[in-house]
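Can you make up a protein sequence with its backbone structure tokens?

===
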Amino acid sequence: MEVTMNKKELNVYPVINRVSKGEISQVKAAKILQLNDRQIRTKLKEYRLKGPADLIHKNKGKPSKRRWDQKNESLVINSKIVDLMAC
């Protein structure tokens, strides 16, 4: 399955890359990305270990753990329709 970066993740990559090269400090990167310096250190560590692909959110492309199964969703929708028709 192919997963792509969203705009926010695309903005993170060049900043983390510059921090990795030593062009800017972690504190300056934190201000640019509106994160705290601890988050930058974590992203930098992941970037150095696994590359730019690790900047993508880990749950992207996976179904939500809070989603309803199809049967329960249908029951709720049908009961709401019946309630609306009764009005």
